[in-house]
Amino acid sequence: METIPRVQHDTDLLRTITKPIDDIDKLIRCLAPKCNQMLMDGRRNIGIVKENQHQCLVLFRGTMSLYRNNDGLIINSETSPFIFGMNSQLRYSRHIYLRTQETSSIGLISINEAHKIIAEQQLWENVSRLLEYSSAKVYAHCFKVSKLSCYEIIVHQLIELNNEPEAIKNKITAANYILSRTFLSRSGVMRTLAKLKQLGAIQLHRGVLVTMNQLPPSLKLSE
């Protein structure tokens, strides 16, 4: 029998991260008039370089994820409102890319134009809170996929999936959601989900998470 250690809830960094909604809304209100706004279908890649100039992406409505090019791993996902590209992360466009997870309303504005508006309207304090949040989200994700046990990682991903908007939650299987965000093996994820379903901790319909009950602090899997 394989025993997976008890979940360490105190290591869940996401519980201490608060999205600065008021700061993001204020930034979006100021940037929106200069944005090139468009409606994008789900599962569409978005270019963030236009005429050789780095762009900021304003997410007015919808959900987007940040992917790594080399392995397709999701680094971060955000639901509106949000602004991607205020830091240097998206400037390395050869290594990462953005993709809509559902039909989304977005706007593009050059980083130079965005910085000009921010300086004129003295919005750097709002920007600093946005950057602090973005850095914390990426750090928390890296921590969760590298420092925890397989079962702990799966539990955290199930919690995140359960908190996703219905448009996302109902269109992806629990296994694919977890695999797209971690380095876990498909067989290990499937065995764990099957065991949790057997115990009544989760309910799946064709692989899609329907309900999540109390997850056990530890889990034993048959060899």
TrEMBL record:
**Domain IprA winged helix-turn-helix stretches:** 151-216
**Looking at the Swiss-Prot or TrEMBL record, what is one Pfam family this protein matches?**
HTH_46
What organism is recorded for this protein? Answer: Klebsiella michiganensis
Write down what this protein is called: Cyclic nucleotide-binding protein
InterPro entries on file: HTH_46, RmlC-like_jellyroll
